[in-house]
Amino acid sequence: MKVAVAGCCHGALDKMYETLELLQRRHNVRPDLLLCCGDFQAVRNEADLRCMAVPAKYRHMQTFYRYYSGEKKAPVLTVFIGGNHEASNHLQELPYGGWVAPNIYYLGYAGVVRFRGVRIGGISGIFKSHDYRKGHFECPPYNQQTIRSAYHVRNIEVFKLKQLKRPIDIFMSHDWPRSIYHYGNKKQLLKMKSFFRQEVESNTLGSPAASELLQHLKPTYWFSAHLHVKFAAFMQHETNSKEELPKATKFLALDKCLPHRDFLQIIDVEHDPNAGDSLEYDAEWIAVLKATNSLVNVTQSSWNMPEKNGLHAKWDYSVTEEAIKEVLEELNHDLKIPCNFTLTAACYDPSKPQKNMEPVHTINPQTTEFCAQFGLTDINDRIQQAKEEGSGRGECEEEEEEEMDSTGSAEEPSEYNTDNSGLSSFNPDEIMLDEDGGDEDLSTCSVDPSPDHPPEFSTSFSDIRIMPDSMAVSSDDAMDSNNEELEKAGGSKQVEEKSPTERSLKRIGGDENGNSGVKKIKRRNQAIYAAEDEED
Q1: Which helix (H) or strand (E) holds 2?
Q2: For 80-128, how does the pLDDT look when each residue is reduced to its tens digit (9 = 90+)?
Q3: DSSP state of 478
Q4: Percentages helix, strand, coil for the chain, rounded to the nearest 5?
Q5: Where is this region: Disordered (predicted)?
């Protein structure tokens, strides 16, 4: 089947779907599935904009709300992960994944699903070491710290994914796995993004957690975004035994969704011709969620996942074939994910702007149903219970720590000692965010004054490439003479056509600034919407 993969969407759904329609019209290529690698921006209303970690001038409604309201419907099944510029309050409603609109599915903090027999996994957010060992404690209304920490990857999600034994076909992360650039054309990468050099040479660019998952899962494909540059790599994995067949991962990072950007990739993926066309649960993943349910943590306490180090009674939470069989029996062997999308917030009305709309902490019926079906902890319900008891960082958190004594320990050192989710150097192609809030104003909400008249993207397209069956990528700069071939590896065919139940809750208390002596850390973010600024 044909799978389209997109980089950072930034809410430009119309742009993506128009491009796919153009592809079909001009080249008779119709993808069966669309994957988006984060910064999807599922913004429903003005309150959602206030929960998106970008400077106020970049808070534009874009077009997702039309798909949320039912005015439009995604023409192709769309599956996405979260990035670092999201309506975090919306995605937080679906920690285990769910529908954000008809035909648009979010994978959750981490998740695995199946489509036509193809196993697709992903992890949302970006890596920051100072939040990595915390629980998912954030909830709206966010403050200057939690609006950012809400999208930081947590060790429990990585731990869950590492319990998987069955092969993964496709995996998505927002930030790149650390070290992946050593398996592609570094010279060409640094030619396009010279400010990456320091981090590439010191091997600190990207996420160490994603790198750990890459080495463990060894998926056939790994797709990322975040750095706004297209980059292909080919990683041959080491085998653990002579009997194990060698595995390799084809890695591709996608550019952001803007006119004249090569932001879409089409790949052919082997699938089960006898499988249905519905998105399905993955039985092993559900079994892993059930097995690790006791590890759920909704506090700011830092603790490591269970390890075989003498401190934990249990450290292996991988599941048996019997456990997987039990999941199948619970579902009567019907793995189809129910189409149970529900509106949980008012939809943006261009004729009646609500600039003072406040975000609220919402428990989504999809999550309630999912947790009840599989006996899982509803993370948002747990957070709400803690807040109702006036816990913050008080009694409830102490009780949680007592519950975790047999599984986790706050005394253990972190797996990762550095905080390098990406570059410390200046990247002129991304939004600039001050870690301590800087120019971020959560009390104001800037809305695009004319959301019904988005830029006419369809006037010029150079956005799609079709990937060949294999990507021949050098493993070191010794192959830099093959730059031309490597560019072709990213895509052999390009479209060059030109054509025209809620309530507001107080945030959990606590000071998150004690994790680092550096008070102001600049992310390598600026001008994601540079093209829009030029138009303005």
Answers
A1: strand 2-6
A2: 999 999 999 999 999 999 999 999 999 999 999 999 999 999 999 999 9
A3: G
A4: 30, 15, 55
A5: 386-536
